[in-house]
Amino acid sequence: MPFSETPIPGLLVFEPSIWKDERGYFFEAFNARLFETAGIQATFVQDNQAQSTYGVLRGLHYQRGAAAQAKLVRVLEGEVFDVAVDLRENSATFGQWYGVVLSAENKKQLFVPRGFAHGYAVLSPRAEFFYKCDNYYHKAAEGGIRYDDPSLGIDWQLPTADVLLSEKDSALPAFGAHLPV
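Now predict its structure.
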């Protein structure tokens, strides 16, 4: 099975089978039947793509209530450190985070269930980040957590001096300020 469990239930790393030859490579980035065998019942309705340069940190973002989103995230070019934080109130792993390097080279993907905050830091000179969502974005339902909240203690794999944040992400509140999701 190409799925690996993480220490946080429901959060899965997907490593597709890759067929390579002298012409290049081929792999299935998503196959609904395969994902269903792993217990993933998401019906994706929106695809998003972002390009960023080294040091850009996007997150930690989430959608509240009925607008919550499950995501399947991957990198098309470059390398990022991808992080998900469990915000599910009744979860034994509430407030815990998991991070994984996703890259164009390793082709790993992370399935992030509803009820998680998500973000990533760009480790390469440039990165193209792509993700599928199982719900549409709703501005009124957006929430976020400050990336450097000491209660989370996330190691973003970047020197703090290299982190580049948007104005919006710089103003995000500490963990717990807008919970539950």
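The longest helix spans residues 32-37.
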